[in-house]
Every structure is written in structure tokens, then in C-alpha cells.
Amino acid sequence: MHWFPSLPPLLRGRSSFDGEDCDVSALRRYQHRVLLWGGCLLSLAIVAGVVALVLLHASGFQTRRLEGLQRTHAAVEAHLVAADAAHQRMLNMAEYAWRHRPDSDVATRLAERQRYLAGGQRMIVSAGPESAPQMVLGVGTDTWPLARLDRYLTLAHSLSVIRRLSTPQGEPDTAASGFFFDPSHQFLVLGDGLTEQRLLAATGAGHRAGLFRHLQLLSTPSAAAAPGTASDMQITLVRHPVSAAPSIAVRLSAHDKGGAIGTFVTLEPTDRLARVMAVADRGTSFVVTADGRVVAGTADATGLPLDSAMRVLRAGRQGDESVAAFRQGLRFYQALRVAGTDWLLVNTYCVGDIAQDGRRLYAVAAVLGGGLLLGLWTLLAWLHWRVFGPALARAARVYQGEQLSRSLIQLSPVGLCLIDRSEARPVLQNELMRHYAAAAERSGVPLYLQLVQLASEHESGTGVFQAPVEFELPVPANDKSPGRQLLVGAVGATYQGRSVLLCALRDLSARVELEQQQAQARQAAEAASRAKGIFLATMSHEIRTPLHGILGHLELLGRSALDEDQQARLRRINQSADSLLQIINDVLDFSRAEAGQLELQAETFEPIALLERVAVLFSPLAEAKGLVMDLSVDAAVPAQVEGPQARIEQVLRNLVSNAVKFTLSGRIALRVRVDVQGEALLLQMEVADSGIGLSPSQLERLFQPYVQADASIISRFGGSGLGLSLCRELCLRMGGEIHARSTPAVGSVFTFAVPVGRVAGAAPRPLAGRSVVLASAAAGWSDELSRRLQVWGAQVQVIEDPALLAQHDVDAATPLVLFERGPARELPVLGEDSRCVVRVSADGPLRAQRRGCTWRVSCYSGESLLQALLAPARPGQRLLAVGQGLD
């Protein structure tokens, strides 16, 4: 028999030490290869991870550069649009001024013309301190018709104002540095910053006519000019005529009724656009014209092959508005067309920029990757010397223990076997297993086949194969051996390439016989319990019938003429009979609950009305003992719910009855609230008292039938011990629960919760739109009465001290409510003779009673309070409800 089926056959020889050494060496070589190749693969994975991190960073850098290009593109277009808007405003105002020239007298026009001609067709014009001074120059304008000359001189005056007005406050003055030419190029108006002397010195022209020809080149449209965003507007890159700095020239043609007025030329330095680009993005970007000239940029373009890049970009775009990108060597380019022009916004970066941006990330990745490689090979070395080496040494010792294991199996008190699943025959087994198999064969049971079939059925039932299963196998008795009940533990395995079943069998015959005896004893006890229940129910029913007759005759006897002693004895007899009837009813209900025959009839009811009914029922008993009974209703409690109202009220009555019975002084509080659990409602009712309390040991057996807290309870308070156990059974049957918490000599709190259904419909608000003043010194009843009034829709003003009622400014038409804990005492209420006061107290009548101007109602009857508030007032009077708490 072999015990280690996973080892090669050479390792199982009893004395084949050479085979053992060979197999151990093979395992050692296999372990070396696994560690080496595994370390290499993990190292490659680490290096690949570092490379992937670098590539991800490069991709992210490219994305950020593209986002920067888009931000810069938006900023450039916004700048150009703002400049075009200023230019268009200037053009519109100039055309308007031309068409609607200001009226001036003949003398003014004559003086302006003479001053212009006297200055050698040169004059400085300004419309005021807020206008921009303009220099007017002319060549051959002295031969013009006087009306034409006067009109252009008037336009020059208007331009001094227009150049200021065309640029809103806070925006750069894009039109200040520029000039205006008439269509014949004989009349020139120079903007602020341009003078004849500076232009002659900068251009090298020797006379004014040469200067006009030089400026005419700037004002004449050319094929290289780019169309602007507005009509009759062209944009080109030029040198400033004075500073020779690169400038953006914008040409605008003014017209009047189809005829040309002249040409406006504005010059904007490109450094403004460069500053806009630098603010939008800190990368390297340029605005480049169609012929490869740099309009503006955030860096020096020297050495960058932008002209060749422009050719490649334009060759691949063909008017496309999307981002164009290409690589030239180790430099990358991204480009977008500037709307309204033939310019391109080009963003460029190189591999060095990527490395500079990710230098910290690359350093961290290198350190982390190197650390992981070092840690990996350190771990592999540790595994080689400290784990696998000792493990192989232990494996060698395993071979030596195989023979010992075989001996132990033979001595095992459990039947062990290894069965071939395909052939249902034993491969290995001990002596006890052979004994079980022989006995089964004599009884006609093929034991091995049965074990394989039952194990397969259990594995199919669980859905887990080659997992341990456990089942019982009965073996019938025969002539030579008694019957047996075998407990089988089986697990699937693989042995020498075959699917096998490893089984362990134990004889459970003695235990099965004991269990049968216990089951018979349990059935006998249950039968006795059922008989007891039937007997109690039958006897209770038989006793209740004549008891009703006794109660009826006692009631008739109470109506006859009896003296005081006879009435007292009759009351004691009635109390005893009522107590006996309650015990009988509890016994019957408890028997029905145990038998599962308890009826639960669902109906729609009002939880608050149920609470008030129970309070009204027990309030006389509480008052007779000097106890205070309070009610508290949570604001979330719905007006109506659906559930077994009768059983809920029965549980609440039992709890309140116990509270009144076991409370000698103090107070009893009845509370109700709801717990929303998804779509379901859980109605929770609570009874708290200041009675004798219970110890932890008494709480443990509190809900057991026929059990009191201690032996003195029966003698002191009486009772059968069935009330709380019946409450527990009722709560369980309703799908709820009940529990208690208590402190000896302090009091107890009993809480039960049952599920109820929702009832559609909104609660009525009969007092909607009315105001009520509530005066009560009892905080609990002040909250409860305030809640009732607010639920009915009233607006409530609470006065905590009724004695100070006269100090409050209470409208005579506003109802007032008075709560009285003890005997009523008169309060100074102004106008009481002309008002009706509703006095609410614990000993008040259940139905509202009116005496003169005063109503009296019970605090446990919300319906009576509402009846008093809705009762019609006398002519000329309003209803008054005053709440005063007297503790």
C-alpha cells in the first residue's frame, strides 16, 4: 500500500536510495530553473513597466502641448477678433462722419482751409483735449475743388475723435498708430505717434511726395495680404515705417454710396500678439504666414526650419480646420489655422523638451525600477537558500516516513480505502475496511460500488468535485453479522494518473440506536404537551361558559338594593370573576398560538386612537393609585395604517395592565412611533413605568409561560404568568418582536414592534388656517397637545407658565387651550366672561361637556378636544382653549 500518491514511483521504493537521490536532484534542478527564468521574466516586466511609464509621460506631454496649442489658438483668435472689432468701429464711425459731416459756418471752414494751405498743405488738427491729435499732409490738394478739400479737412477733425472712441477703455489702442489716404493718394492723415519729420527720417525720402509713394505701398492691397475677418479688410506683416519693428498692418477701405472715401491703415506691433501667446501657454509657439515669415512667437525662431515645416503642414492640410502634426527628425510640430487669415499657429517641441519636463519622473522610475530589480533578485536568492533548500531536505526525509505511515494506517480504528472510480475496486485498504466489505458482500451490498455512486451523487449535488463529502451508508443484517450504519467521509483524488476516491468509514450503529430512542422520547413528550394543551383549552372553554353565567347574575345582583357592605363584597366577587375570566382567555389564546390557530385579521385603524382607547381604559386605575399617565405620539406616525388591530391592542393592554399593577408611585408613559424600512412600516409601541423593576436574571426568563419574576410576585400582585408569554407569541405571529429593559427599583420599558401596511390618502386638517394658544406647565403634555393641534392644521402659540397668561398679548379672537394635571384652579384670563375655555385634564369626560363658557374634555380623547374646538360659538363669541399644566 502506498500513502503518497503524488510522488514518482522511484521515490517509493523501500530501499532504492539511488532513486531517491536522483529524484531529489531532479527537483533541485527544476527549482533552479524556475527561480532563474521567473526572475528573468519579472525583471523584463519591471523594465517594460519603466518603459511604459516613459511612453505614457511622452504621450501625456504631447496631449498637454496640444491643449496648450488650442489655448494659444483661442487667445490669438480672440485678440484678432477684438482688434477687428475696433477697426470696424473706426471704419463705421468714419463713414458715418463722412455722410453726416458736422455743420460749420463758412468762416470756420475758410479759416481751416487757409491755415492748411498757409502751412504748405500741412496742419495739426484736434477736436479737443479728449481727442487724438492728427497731422494732415497734402500733395497737390491746393488744386482740389474747395468743397472736396473742406470735406476731407472736416473728416480729419472727425478722425481725431474717432480714433479715441473706436478703442474701448481698457483695450489696447490698435488704431492709434496708423494713417488715412484718400483714393488719389494726395491727402494723408497721420495718427498719433506718426509725424512727417519722423517718417522722412525713417524712410529716407527726401521730400513729401517720396514719403507719400512709400506709404502708398503700405495702403495698396497686394496678393500676399491675407483677408481679414471683416469685409474690405486685409491683414499683412510689414515693417513699421518709423521703428522698423515687425508690425501687423490692417487695411480698411471706406465707401460712401458705392464710391471710395479712402483707405485706413493701422499698424500694430507684433509683440502684443506675442504677449497674448505667452500668457496663454508657456510652450514654444509661433504665428507663421503662408510664405514662412514669423508674425509673432514665444521664443526665438532662429535655427528652426519653420519654412520647411510650413510647406509640409500646408501640403497635408488642404484647407482642413483640424490640428495638423508631423515629425522632422527629433522635433515635433503641431499646427492650427488662424480663422480669417492664411496664417498658421505652430507649436513645436523636441525630445529634449520631453526629457526636461519628465526628469523627476524618470529619476523616480529609474530608482524604483532599480530598487525592484535589486529586491527581486535578493528575494530569489533568499528563497533559494532559506526556503527551497530546507524544503528539499525535508522531502528527502518524507521518503523515510512512508513505511511508518503504512504501519499507522493498518493500526487505524477507522476503515480506510482508496477506490478506483472507473472500475469500482479497491486500490489500497486496511484490514478493518476489508472486514466491512466482507460483511456487506454477505448482505448482498457491493460496498465499493455503493461508495463510488453515493460520493458522485453528493458531489453533483454540491457542484464541487474533489471536495470532501460525508454521508451515511446502511448495511443490512445477515446470518453472521448484525446490521450496521456506516458514516462515510470521501474525497476525490488522483493516484498514478487514475481518478480515485479516498474513503474513511466509521460504524455508527450504537449512535443511531441512541438517537432513535431519543426521538421516541421526544415524540412522547410532544404528545403529552399536546394533550396538556388540549386539556387546558377544553377545561378553560368549559369553565368560561358557566363563568359568564355567574358574571351575568352578579351584574343583576348589583342592580338590586344592597347595603354598603354587601356592595363591597359584590365588587370583590366581580373583580375575582373578571380576573378568572382574563386568565381563562389568556390560556385559550396561548393554546391557539402554540397550535398555530391564532386568527390575525388585518384591518385599517388609527394608531393614535388605539393608544387613546387603552389609556382611557386604564386611566381610572392609574388615578386610583395616584399614578400619572402620559401619552407621546411621534410626528411621523401616519393617521391610518393597516394591520391586526385587535391583537396589537391586546398586547398593548397586557403591557399597560402590568405597568399599572407593578407601579406603586410615579408615572406611566405610553409612546408610539414608526420606523420606515424601505416600502414597509414598523409600528413601535412602548410602555414605560416607574415600578419595581427587574434584575438581569429575571429578564432572561421574563417571557416564559407560567413563570413569574420571583415567588413573591404571586402573593403581592397575583397573576398567572401567561400575559407576557402571550404577548411574545402574538408579536411573533404578527411578524414582529418584543423586548424589555429594566432597572430594579427604577422602572421598566417594554417595547414591541409589528409590521403594518400603508394606507393611501392625506390626513384631514379640520383646523387649517386657525390659530390656537396653548398654556401648559407640563412639558410632555404641552408637546403632545401641540402636536395634535398642528396635525389638525392649527398654528399653535405655546405659553409655558399659565400663571403669566395675562402678561401675553393674546388676541381675544384666538382660541386658548388649558391642560390641568390636578384640580382646576382659576387663572386671571382677560375677557373670560365673553370667551369659552376648553379645560383638558386626565379626569375629564371622554365626551366634551360644556357648562356656561367652559368646555371640559379628557386628555386621552383627541376626538373630544377636536369636537370642542369645532363646536359653534355663541353669537359674538370665539372659542377659547387654554392649556395649563399643574404639576
UniProtKB/TrEMBL annotation:
It comes from the Bacteria. It catalyses: ATP + protein L-histidine = ADP + protein N-phospho-L-histidine. It is found in: Membrane. Its EC number is 2.7.13.3. The chain crosses the membrane at residues 34-56, 361-385. SUPFAM superfamilies: ATPase domain of HSP90 chaperone/DNA topoisomerase II/histidine kinase, Homodimeric domain of signal transducing histidine kinase. Keywords: ATP-binding, Kinase, Membrane, Nucleotide-binding, Phosphoprotein, Transferase, Transmembrane, Transmembrane helix, Two-component regulatory system. One of its GO terms (cellular component) is membrane. Residues 538-758 form the Histidine kinase domain. InterPro entries: HATPase_C_sf (IPR036890), HATPase_dom (IPR003594), His_kinase_dom (IPR005467), HisK_dim/P_dom (IPR003661), HisK_dim/P_sf (IPR036097), Sig_transdc_His_kin-like_C (IPR004358). GO terms for molecular function: ATP binding; phosphorelay sensor kinase activity. This is histidine kinase.
